[in-house]
Amino acid sequence: MISPTALFALDTLLTEEEREIRNTVRRVCDREIRPHVADWFEAGELPVRELARTLGGTGLLGMHLDGYGCAGMGAVSYGLACLELEGADSGLRSLVSVQGSLAMYAIWKYGSEEQRQRWLPGMAAGELIGCFGLTEPDFGSDPARMRTNAKRDGGDWVLNGTKLWITNGSVADVAVVWAQTDDGIRGFLVPAGTPGFTVNDVKHKISLRASVTSELVLDGVRLPADAMLPEARGLRGPLGCLNEARFGIIFGSMGAALDCLETAIAYAAEREVFARPLSSFQLTQEKLADMALELGKGLLLAVHLGRLKEAGTLTPEQVSAGKLNNVREAIDIARKCRTLLGASGVTLEYPVIRHSVNLESVLTYEGTSEIHTLVLGKALTGIAAFA
Ligand code: TGC
Ligand code: FAD
Fold first, then answer.
1. What is the pLDDT of residue 73?
2. pLDDT for 195-252, tens place per residue?
3. What Pfam family is a match for this entry (predicted)?
4. CA of 21 to the centre of ligand 2 (A)
5. What pLDDT score was predicted for residue 93?
6. Where are the beta strands (DSSP E) in the chain?
């Protein structure tokens, strides 16, 4: 027997340091996350603060950023961390994506030196939590039409609007909020507790239950002039952050798929049907072989895109291709694995149904599969078909 990753000799593409980082994150997941995650999922809760400190202590928050207490790791190392975290649960990878690739990256890339010093060291340590408010109730795929606005009032800014589906919204110490201004879309740092700023959690999710999802309401929120991120102008600002988080999902989705496939292979070896191991049937072996192929191709694509990112040549279209392919294949693998587990596949005793329903959110957030399809369509034809 050979593991799905060994089949493709994936380790030969990684440096010793990258393998060590992957193993460290796997150990943290085995110790701190896997024993509890099904219960968190069932309860619809996540101990975000506690986990953020653990993940920050391991150097995983903003790990691909330099300075300000961040670990300054390469893109493949960051991707492998996402793979391991999402192998435990997509909600954990979301926590790390939103903190490091969206909130911290926005401050790191577009913030003033004062803003970076104020927020980044605490966020890297997991002592401070950030969220990223782009989506609104009426504008998800089309954020350019957002209604949230910021107007000057003397030296201050006054923000009004509502953001929805915001990961970590109610636990965040600081929200990166994108708003229309007379000067186009700009980003603002809104500290928790600012008068007029309230948060409400989204209840009754069936997917990504081990993750906090919130509404942010801004009702006349008054901020000083220096609350604005000086270097982000237009939609290019938030979309630049999305490239970072989407990159993590290219690896992360394969982590969820790998966990499903390993579970299914072990289950099929143990389970007897018609007096023989389930794994001995040709129909089963076809499913396993097909899934291993898609997993292997997805992992190879992820590492290739990671190397392009490290070389500084990765394009947004390549990120779209990776996110579209790998999430689509991961969800397919999770569903196929679920069939192999029969009735056991619908319980939280095994991770497969949890990954499967989690991946429904991953398919939608960070750009839906339709949006990434249209990004590729535009790249191939030169014609934008979004509107
Ligand atoms: P368009 O006219 O094409 O572009 C506007 C400006 O943005 C630039 N641009 C990008 N820049 C960096 N990275 C990218 N990927 C970029 N895509 C476009 C573009 O060059 C232009 O710049 P400039 O300077 O010329 O003005 O914009 P559009 O309004 O037609 O929209 C294009 C579209 C549909 C692709 C874009 O709106 C889009 O990606 N929509 C999807 C929105 C989305 O992904 N939202 C995610 C919210 S955050 C989230 O889901 C977190 S989930 C939690 C977790 O990660 O765990
Ligand atoms: P819509 O944009 O209304 O799309 C509905 C359907 O229409 C989709 O199938 C879509 O693909 C399709 N569609 C849209 N435009 C086109 C088109 N031009 N052609 C064909 N089909 C089209 N957002 C944040 O800002 N921050 C977060 O932290 C965050 N966390 C999230 C966490 C979770 C659990 C979830 C589920 C979402 C989160 N989101 C977050 C929001 C997420 O990014 C949006 O849900 C996503 O961008 C899609 O927007 P929408 O839900 O409004 O769908």
1. 98
2. 999 999 999 999 999 999 999 999 999 999 999 999 999 999 999 999 999 999 999 9
3. Acyl-CoA_dh_M
4. 32
5. 98
6. 130-133, 149-153, 156-167, 174-181, 184-191, 197-201, 213-223, 272-273, 276-277
CATH class, range 236-381? mainly alpha
Ligand number, closest to the Cα atom of 212 = 2
CATH number for the region 6-125 comes to 1.10.540.10
| Residue 366 among the catalytic residues | yes
Phi, psi for 110 (deg, rounded to 5): -115, -5
CATH code of the domain occupying 130-227:
2.40.110.10
Cβ–Cβ under 8 Å, residues 301 and 322: yes
Which ligand 1 atom is at minimum distance from the Cα of 374?
35
* Structural domain spans, the chain: 6-125, 130-227, 236-381
| Complex ipTM value | 0.99
Catalytic entry in 127, 136, 366, 370 = 366
In short, whether 98's Cβ falls inside 6 Å of ligand 1 is: yes
284: Cβ below 6 Å to ligand 1?
no
